[in-house]
Amino acid sequence: MNLSGSLPMTRRCFFATAGLAVAGPAAVGDGPAVTADNLPKAALLSDGDVKTYLLEFHTGQEVMQGLLAFARKHGLVAGHLTGIGAVSDAVVGYFDPQKKAYLRIHEKGQQEVLSLTGNLALYDSEPFLHVHTVLGLSDGSTWGGHLFEMTVRPTVELVMTTYPKPVRRKTDAETGLPLARPLMAKGRLSWHTRTTSRARSRSGRWAAPAPRCRRWGSAAITSAT
Q: Is the dihedral of CA 180, 182, 186, 191 positive or negative?
C-alpha cells in the first residue's frame, strides 16, 4: 500500500482530498471534476416519498464522483447506501484526531469490494456523501477506511435509499469536520429526547423509562422501545 502522507484538515482540503465536492469543481482545488461520465446506470426499485435506487457503475468510472453527480441530478437531500463489487484502484483514509488530518492510503491493483456503506446529507445546501469501505486483496487480506476514490473494474453495484426530509451537516469546532446534525421539528422534541427526558428521575439520576403497552387484538403487548 502506498501511504501518501497526512493532509491538514482545513475545510477546503477535506473536500478536495475526499472527493466530496459540494460546490462544483472550482471549489475543490485539485479534486477530480464531477462529470456525467461517472454517472451510474440507475433503476428505481420503489417510489414514493422514500425512494430506493439500484445503481450500477462500470469499468473506468469513479464511484464517489458518480454518486455526487447522481445526487445533484436528482436533487437528493438525505439517504443511505450499501454496495459490493470490484475495483482496480482505491484511495481510503484514516483520520488522526490528534493531528486533525487524514492519512491517505492508495492501493493499486484488482480488489473486491467486500463492503461499502455510507450516507447522504446536505452541507451548505449541496449534496454531501460520507462513505466507508472494506476491500479484499488477492492474498485474502483486507483493508479499508474512509473512501476518497474508487475506480471500478468491472462493476460496483449499490442500493441507495433516499428520504424527502433533509439531513444537514455543520462544521464541528473541535475537529473541523462537517458532522451530521439531524433536524428536529420546530416546537417538538424527537421521540428519543422525550423518552430520555422522562427517564430522568426527580433526584437527577437516570432511570429506565416505564414500559409502554399497546393493544393487538385482545392481547396486550408490552414494549420498551
A: negative
Nearest CA among 149, 146, 152 for reference residue 133: 146
**% of the chain surpassing 70 pLDDT:** 66
Helix (H, G, I), strand (E, B) or coil at 194: helix
In the chain, the largest separation of any two C-alpha atoms, in whole Å, equals 65
Instruction: Quote the pTM value.
Output: 0.70
User: What angle (nearest 5°) sits at the alpha carbon of residue 120, between those of residues 92 and 162?
Assistant: 135
pLDDT in tens, 14-33: 444 444 433 333 222 334 55
Cβ neighbours of residue 149 closer than 8 Å, sequence gap 6 or more: 19, 32, 62, 63, 64, 89, 90, 91
**Cβ distance 94 to 106 under 8 Å?**
no
DSSP letter string, 112-171: EEEEEEEEEEEETTEEEEEEEEEEE-TTS-EEEEEEEEEEEEEEEEEEEEE-SS--EEEE
Cα–Cα distance for residue pair 156/190, rounded to 1 Å: 36
User: Looking at residue 200, what DSSP letter applies?
Assistant: B
How many C-beta atoms lie closer than 10 Å to residue 4's C-beta? 15
Q: Which among 180, 70, 72 has a CA at the least distance from the CA of 126?
A: 72
Which residues on neighbouring strands pair with residue 113, listed in sequence order?
A: 85, 135
